[in-house]
Design goal:
By secondary structure, the protein is α/β, with parallel strands linked by helices. It contains twelve helices and 14 strands.
Length: 382
């Protein structure tokens, strides 16, 4: 295929991340993309965004299957909340390429079905881990490759309330989705979470969906892109256990006796998002300092420390102001038109879910069920 081919894309799910990032950046790349169709459960939101992005009414639908039936679509962005497995599977079976927001899905069973379907269909499916396409992250990757004797990795995320970002960008919502539509979807979502981690408390089910798959997944994927695959999860603690705005610490083991300590905590009021991956050896350190994912064109500073002629040297690098979400769209286009395998493909997304189930399994192994219980049993035998 010619690299200049313009892809006609349909967007499934027009909520926060679609409105703040994906739709505006698709619109900013007219040489690569045409926003050809929209699907959302909200009829009024479809009308509003359809008019904003010049999508004809005939190509707006509350049923994503109508969008996928169109021969005017080359690829789809799957951005709906909840699991993405039904949309991905239907898109792949319809011969459409897919860029899907994280998480890929909720369970390993779903992930395996997606992997099988993608192999059969021969289309490209890329998981939207925007950090993996961030120029600052790429700079850090190259530095980390040359580190010797890595000993310790520390990841910290301090997560404030998201409402402030919604207000900045004027995220639009309408309260017009019938309860009869939402209720079966919520029940199906809860069933999948129970399949993944068992019949645990409502709070832990929420944390698995909203925090672990919704946020921790980004840093786990970024970590794997830097130093590869962990050998296991040694510890997980959540406090307070009865709140849906928790703090979580987990410790991962790596080959050569390397440890990763990751703490994620929700601190709603202070308007200061903080996220850092710090990699440390005896002779050098690399710190990747991600900006809020809701702010545009903020660089990702990289701090590099090492010894030089007996002196401790610190270098702070801002590799680029190019927005990670926009670079991600460029990468997806390149994979589709030039027949390249995405670096964040479905196998990569599945690996993250497997690790995050180990994180949950290390919390309360005796009280878990579902896939996480099997993971806990495998960990115990290892």
């Amino acid at each position: 295929m010619a690299a200049s081919r313009r892809l006609r894309v349909g967007v499934i799910g027009c909520g926060t991340v679609a409105q703040i990032m994906h739709l505006p950046y698709l619109d900013s790349l007219p040489e690569l993309y045409e926003i050809a169709a929209l699907s959302d459960l909200s009829p009024n939101l479809l009308r509003f965004l359809g008019e904003k992005y010049n999508v004809p009414a005939v190509r707006r639908s509350t049923d994503y299957r109508d969008l996928l039936a169109s021969n005017q679509i080359d690829a789809v962005l799957v951005l709906n909340s909840g699991t993405h497995a039904p949309q991905i599977l239907a898109a792949v079976q319809a011969g459409k390429h897919v860029l899907v927001e994280k998480p890929l899905c909720f369970t390993l069973r779903e992930a395996d079905e997606i992997v099988s379907a993608v192999k059969k269909a021969g289309v490209k499916v890329m998981v939207a881990y925007m950090k993996r396409y961030d120029p600052g992250y790429h700079y850090a990757q190259n530095v980390v490759k040359d580190m010797r004797g890595l000993r310790y990795v520390q990841i910290n995320t301090l997560h404030p309330s998201e409402d402030q970002y919604h207000n900045i960008f004027g995220v639009t919502r309408f309260n017009d989705v019938p309860q009869g539509v939402m209720q079966p979807l919520m029940e199906a979502q809860d069933a999948l979470i129970r399949e993944a981690i068992g019949d645990v408390s409502e709070t832990l089910r929420f944390v698995y969906f909203d925090v672990i798959l919704g946020s921790l997944v980004h840093d786990i994927n970024a970590l794997r892109g830097l130093i590869g695959e962990p050998t296991g999860v040694l510890y997980t603690g959540i406090w307070p256990e009865d709140e849906k705005a928790p703090s979580i610490t987990t410790i991962l083991s790596y080959p050569n006796d390397v440890r990763v300590v990751y703490t994620w905590t929700y601190l709603a009021e202070l308007r200061d998002y903080f996220e850092e991956i710090a990699l440390m050896s005896s002779a050098s350190r690399v710190r990747i300092q991600f900006p809020s994912p809701f702010l545009k064109h903020f660089p990702t500073p990289i701090v590099v420390q090492h010894m030089e002629n007996g002196a401790a040297i610190e270098k702070r690098v801002q590799a680029s102001y190019n927005e990670a979400f926009r670079e991600e769209l460029r990468a997806f286009h390149d994979c589709v038109v030039n027949d390249k395998e995405p670096i964040t493909n479905v196998a990569d997304g599945r690996a993250d879910i497997a690790i995050l189930q180990q994180v949950v399994a290390a919390l309360h192994p005796a009280g878990l069920g579902g896939e996480a219980a099997k993971t806990a049993s495998q960990m115990a035998r290892a």
